[in-house]
Specification:
This protein is 32% helix and 26% strand. α7 links the parallel β11 and β12. α3 crosses α10. It is globular, with a radius of gyration of 20 Å. It starts with a strand and ends with a strand. Bound molecules: NADP nicotinamide-adenine-dinucleotide phosphate.
């Protein structure tokens, strides 16, 4: 089988398509013939050597796939063979074949293409955990979705709209029309201007009830200051620290130094909550994640979960796929096709 191998830390030239032996399913596992694999910002950070959760190099990244079950382990229901599925993969998803625990897969909804299905697991589970599970967003409340045009951002918009919240989103300006057409109430340009005064003006100086922030560093400080009373800040990424080579390391260091410290008495007096999320640290809680996934797949049937694929790239064009995310051009999900 062919796999996308990140051979070392570095720029896109470290990405190589290589032949490896086919996997066989172990205990409790299935082997999926991959039809589409999701590309995530974590894959970019891992290639840059800035992702502490990534496997040692050389490695095959890939947290999610859609495809068809090719083989099952001895202790797994044989009727899974031939079924179209979508699954979370603990790396290795960017391959023609991947072995995963049967508990990490769900049946692919018929109405989704394989490409759309591969856009579901990471983006929607992350957005669901941030907004529904930890952020507890309610009808009539307001949410600021940073990086609203990205994969997680669009997923968050679907969920916030379904709840009936007022939605604010920061994004590069070229994405604003797409976002408002899709239902975002207020698009904010955070590239050319400071987003905070714009948000405060739009909310009559009050701020919002929930902010989900994957930028990190000093950005979290500003997001925290933009909460209204009983507001919550969900922190889930440090894209501010992304960059190649030495400049990337410096940016990540700067982001770490600029992170805010939250004092319990400050939280208490301002009626604010803060929380962090790392979906990649939930492998030991499959039952919880399965419940979230069931809700998300029900949302696909009810048509309020609308995975949006920005572009599909062949494995051989993985360098272009990485560039699209790094150059901030994507709207929604980038997927890789074996
Ligand atoms: N903790 C978790 O469990 C978890 C799970 C999934 C993702 N995440 C995090 O969520 C964020 C979004 O991930 P994603 O996979 O959905 O990616 P994405 O948003 O689809 O991809 C990149 C987009 O991020 C925005 N961006 C902001 N700062 C950037 C920078 N310094 N360099 C490049 N792009 C930047 C750009 O959009 P605009 O310029 O239009 O904003 C760009 O188009 C990332 O920080 C990721 O690490 C965390």
């Amino acid at each position: 089988m062919r796999q996308i191998v990140t051979t070392a830390n570095g720029d896109i030239d470290v990405l190589k398509v290589q032949e490896k032996p086919d996997p066989t399913p172990g205990e409790g596992e299935v082997v999926i013939r991959v039809r589409a694999a999701g590309l995530n910002f974590a894959d970019i950070l891992a290639r840059q050597g800035l992702y502490p959760d990534g496997p040692p190099k050389p490695c095959v990244m890939g947290y999610e796939v859609s495809g068809v079950v090719d083989a099952v382990g001895d202790d797994v229901n044989k009727s899974f063979v031939g079924k179209s599925v979508v699954a979370m993969t603990r790396f290795g998803g960017q391959s023609e074949l991947v072995a995963v625990k049967a508990t990490q897969m769900s049946e692919k909804p018929d109405q989704l293409t394989f490409e759309q299905a591969a856009a579901i697991p990471v983006n929607y589970l992350t957005a669901y955990a941030l907004i529904v599970v930890m952020g507890s967003l309610h009808e009539g409340e307001s949410i600021l979705i940073h990086n609203a045009g990205g994969g997680v951002g669009l997923a968050a918009l679907d969920i916030a709209k379904k709840i009936g919240a007022v939605t604010y989103g920061t994004a590069s300006p070229g994405k604003h029309k797409f976002l408002t057409d899709r239902g975002l109430d207020h698009a904010i340009d955070y590239r050319k201007q400071d987003w905070q005064p714009q948000l405060m003006q739009l909310t009559n100086g009050r701020g919002v009830d929930l902010i989900i922030d994957p930028i990190g560093g000093a950005h979290w400080r500003k997001s925290y200051a933009s909460l209204r009373h009983t507001g919550r800040l969900g922190m889930f990424g440090v894209s501010a620290g992304s960059g190649n080579g030495f400049s990337g390391k410096l940016k990540m260091l700067k982001a770490a130094i600029q992170m805010p410290r939250f004092h319990p008495l400050g939280l208490l007096s301002k009626n604010r909550g803060v929380f962090g999320l790392n979906l990649g640290h939930m492998w030991h809680e499959p039952e919880k994640v399965a419940v979230w996934m069931r809700d998300i797949l029900r949302g696909v049937e009810e048509e309020w979960i609308r995975p949006h694929v920005d572009q599909a790239f062949s494995f051989e064009d993985v360098d272009k796929a990485h560039r699209r995310l790094e150059e901030r051009k994507n709207i929604g999900k980038v997927v890789l096709i074996p």
